[in-house]
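Same chain as my last thread, 404 residues:
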Amino acid sequence: MSNKFKILAGVLLTLIAVLIYLESNQEDPINWYSSYSKSDKIPYGTFVLYNTLKETRTEDNFKEISRPPYEFLADSNHQRGTYFFNNDFINFDEAESLQLLDWVSRGNTLYVGASGIGETILDTLSLEIEALYQLDNLEREPHMELVHPELKKEHPYTLDLDIQTFYFKEVDTINTIVLGEYDYIKNKDSLTLREPKVHFIKQAFGEGTIIIHLMSDVFVNYFMLHNSNYVYTEAALKYIPENETIFWDNHYKNGKTIQTSPLYMLFKNRYLKWAYYMLLIGVVLWVFFEGKRKQRAIPIIKPLPNQTLAFTKTIAGMYLEKQDHKSIALHQINHFMEYIRNEYSIETADRGLDFIERLASKSDNTQEDTKRLMDYITSINQKYPITQEELLKLNKLIEAFKTK
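reply #2:
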């Protein structure tokens, strides 16, 4: 390896090390993705809300539902409690909405924190949703308060994010209970809402209750951990009946878990990701340098030739050259007896009538042919010398016997 090549490799490794150092010391950017996932600690995750609700219930009274509501209620229609949904928008279809309404009418509670829930439920409750626009106020930081005297505070709660908000356009106060209002306020120190808009309501349905909060942002980590806003969220959750099972929905979530690759967690963490890249780079460099320094051509070693056939031909030629037909016949007889012992598991020491019957039966030969062969073998053993014709006849009888 030349010195020039070593210098270039050292510079490359130094640059990679500097890049990794700078990347590892850089602060992670804030992730503003609206996931609403229970496991996310990002601003728009619901890690705080999930644990807040879970701590208010026993293990048996807090259940997570990862299936669509239609499937869950179809299989568990007898379950009683509060079905809790929270996402930026939840589009219940007609069949699902009717299933939920039927379940609520039997004495259960539906609690939805979302900017929309589909037309079927809204039409059934005679509600209409509209986006809030104020041309004289370009700031869209909502200020909220709860209507109940015991829950209302001196100052409205503030969500200091510029977001699009929705409200109930018309509310039938005979059938609907207003729980919360909001407005855009120019003066953040103001104690009252200028033109309050209803965004949090409760309505009886059959023997049950439907609660809708159109501002899902009040349930995320960012809002609950900002100043004392958690008081607002906890107060909004007080409308969930006490000692009632909460069914936490994991299906209608923007950030529900869909990753299945084992490398997902590796690449999700920046430090593990760069450690993985460094490992790959190190392996490539090691293979390159070590392979170049140590790789040698592998010589081709020819296998030893099989000389069995040549040896056999040589030995046979010696016997034929000497005209020793008797020795060849004895070898052939011994080989045939070994064949009988291995193939038919018959002892060949005694070649009487019982031996002939067993051998004929197992070899599918007739007793006459088998006896003729054994008699001929006996005559060959007793005769010396033998002619070439007699040797050929012995070979012919043995081959005929085997072919059966």
